[in-house]
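can u do me a favor
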């Protein structure tokens, strides 16, 4: 069985394309074109877990598990700038602790601005506090335990 001129030409084109591809692979092996290395699955799992924990912390999912009651004397309150123009209401205590006063929708604490307005310097309060103190998040203006309820001590 012999091939027609058209079939021979088509086979010749396929061979030329294959040789061209093989040449490009050889060039890439010599460093002119670098191929992207596949990402190690361990890194993917690590970053997924990290972002899940960061998301859960930022929305207060773990906060009900970390509720505590403290009695502190407030020495100053201030609004500090956070990441990308956001701001956070914070209070500074005599024991050199810093607390945020922010809303937390997951536990129904939505009156943070009223709480912040009630707090006065040089007064002592029983406070219900949730969350962790995470120093690495302080750069972004957060990461402090969150005050969700106060009661002034006479």
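np, heres the sequence
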């Amino acid at each position: 069985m012999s091939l027609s001129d058209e079939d021979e030409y088509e086979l010749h084109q396929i061979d030329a394309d294959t040789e061209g591809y093989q040449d490009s692979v050889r060039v890439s092996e010599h460093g002119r074109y670098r191929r992207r290395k596949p990402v190690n699955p361990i890194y993917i799992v690590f970053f997924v877990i990290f972002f899940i924990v960061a998301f859960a912390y930022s929305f207060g999912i773990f906060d009900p598990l970390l509720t505590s009651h403290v009695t502190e004397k407030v020495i100053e309150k201030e609004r500090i700038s956070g990441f990308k123009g956001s701001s956070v209401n914070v209070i500074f205590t005599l024991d050199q602790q810093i607390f945020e006063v922010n809303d937390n929708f997951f536990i129904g604490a939505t009156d943070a601005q009223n709480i912040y307005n009630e707090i006065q310097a040089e007064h002592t309060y029983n406070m219900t506090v949730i969350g962790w103190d995470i120093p690495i998040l302080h750069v972004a203006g957060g990461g402090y335990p969150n005050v969700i309820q106060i009661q002034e001590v006479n």
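The beta strands are 68-81, 87-93, 98-100, 123-130, 146-153. hope that helps!!
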